[in-house]
Amino acid sequence: MFDNLDTVPELLKNFQFQTGEKHKFLGDNYRLMVEESYDTGVIIDNYNMVLSVQDMNSAKQKEFVLDMWYREQARDVFVDAMSTAIVKAAPYQVSFPELKIYRLEDRWGSCSPKSKRVILNLELIKTPKECIEYIALHEMLHFRFPNHSLSFYGALGTLMSDWKEREDMLNRKYRLL
Ligand SMILES: [Zn+2]
């Protein structure tokens, strides 16, 4: 293994939220820089992820502020990916879904045709946009094809010819538990 660090699932890393620690965002590694400030938040500055908190000694506060920032970013990026997927999958008469974002340990997303709901894993925000777009389209197609049937993969291949490479990247570089 060439890059052992990258193969450890993010969910298994025991983050300390200290300056110098590596955190992922949209497929890139950023160097955490913790700063003390009355206004809390996260700013991306080149390859630094600047985390501002009121109490630098509180790991809980740092974890919370970073988590909220990931959730905000996920909301924006996932809504874009879902919008694209809805347009792409339109020929298959898919439903218009409700989007939920949860942190899941064992899957990137799920689709419930009955409740017209798509769940995307918050952890996806750490992976490249191409991977997020792939999962969004994959889940949308489950409205029409509930199982991983040949028809499902036929539609997927028609709408996204390189879906397999995107899936391989997720499995290789961004494993869940
Ligand atoms: Zn599936």
Automatic annotation (TrEMBL):
InterPro entries: UTP_pyrophosphatase-like, YgjP-like_metallopeptidase
Protein name per UniProt: DUF45 domain-containing protein
Domain YgjP-like metallopeptidase, residue spans: 14-172
Gene3D superfamilies xref list: Metalloproteases ('zincins'), catalytic domain (3.30.2010.10)
Classification via PANTHER family: UNCHARACTERIZED PROTEIN YGJP, UTP PYROPHOSPHATASE
Lineage: Bacteria, Bacillati, Bacillota, Clostridia, Eubacteriales
